[in-house]
Amino acid sequence: MRIIKSSITKIPESDFNIATIGSFDGIHIGHEKILQTLIKIAKKNNGKSILITFWPHPRYVLKKNNDFKLLTSLDEKIKIFKKNKIDILYIVDFSLKFSKVSANKFIENILLDKLKINCLLIGYNNNFGKNREGNIKYLEQNKKKFDIDIISIPKQSVDNISISSTKIREYLNSGKIRSANRLLGRKYLINGKVVRGNGIGRKINFPTANIEIDEPKKLLPKSGVYAVEVVLSRKIYLGMLNIGYNPTIKNEKKSIEVNIFKFSEDIYNDKISISFVRRIRNEKKFKNLNELKKQLIIDKKKVKSI
């Protein structure tokens, strides 16, 4: 996959170029449908599949001081796009200046001049350009003017629930991990590095790795205890993770700690990837560390039974 981050870069000539546009936050099942269709049509026409996305997320540019959280970091998106075998990833530097570019100018300057597309694939509720004027209706009305084919992907659903990044955020904020994972089509994950903690877990025979996530704006699921899968050096381990303030020892800052089963290596500063499987319980304040240990033994049995 070729990654282009310059807005002045033009791609080489091709017999057929098909593109899609979007933030693709979360890259859920609905997004995957778009990607699969994009690649299928590109291959059928012996052409190139082009995905146009924006970074930073437009919400951070257009709505200052908001508490919007990301489902996927840019690095996570790139890995998924590569896995899907997109030919060209075109990353637009989203700024206030760019937000004022009309849909007409975006199509002429980027889609036609720089990317030379023949076909545009777009989601049913996708919008682009100043005031979000570039939608499926606008494109259908102007496709003869631009001399490009337009293909729209209809709304996708799972168990009669419409798939959207907003719905996935709602599930994660309420701790409904399995529901979020169903709409994502995979387990929700966080990436980060292992940092030093307070060492309390080791004192009660439940050593934990404290995690500093790579993307500070990444959405963390609701505070509580979770069954997770941990990837370290390409090996997968089962574990249980706590998000929150550890009320028994009164942490001032929210922390992420994971107890990795059948693992005892020193991994400080190592990269770590954690996928959420199921929520086990809420955070709870215990009378002392011994009571906490008793609960952790129960939690571990629950996780291992999943």
Secondary structure topology:
Layout: E1 2-4, E2 17-21, H1 29-44, E3 48-55, H2 58-62, H3 74-83, E4 88-93, H4 96-99, H5 103-114, E5 119-123, H6 136-146, E6 149-153, E7 157-158, E8 161-162, H7 165-173, H8 177-184, E9 189-195, H9 200-203, E10 209-213, E11 224-232, E12 235-244, E13 255-260, E14 271-281, H10 289-305
Helix pairs in contact: 7-8
How is this structure best described in words?
The structure is a single chain. The model has no long low-confidence stretch (mean pLDDT 93). The longest helix has 17 residues, at 289-305. Strand 2, helix 1 and strand 3 (48-55) form a beta-alpha-beta unit. The strands form 3 sheets. A 6-stranded parallel sheet has the order 1-4-3-2-5-6, with helices on both faces. It has helices at 29-44, 58-62, 74-83, 96-99, 103-114, 136-146, 165-173, 177-184, 200-203, 289-305, and strands at 2-4, 17-21, 48-55, 88-93, 119-123, 149-153, 157-158, 161-162, 189-195, 209-213, 224-232, 235-244, 255-260, 271-281. It is α/β, with parallel strands linked by helices and 306 residues long. The radius of gyration is 22 Å and the shape is elongated. Helix 7 (165-173) runs antiparallel to helix 8 (177-184). It has 10 helices and 14 strands. The protein has 2 domains: 2-158, Rossmann fold; 187-305, Riboflavin kinase-like (Elongation Factor Tu (Ef-tu), domain 3, Beta Barrel), CATH 2.40.30.
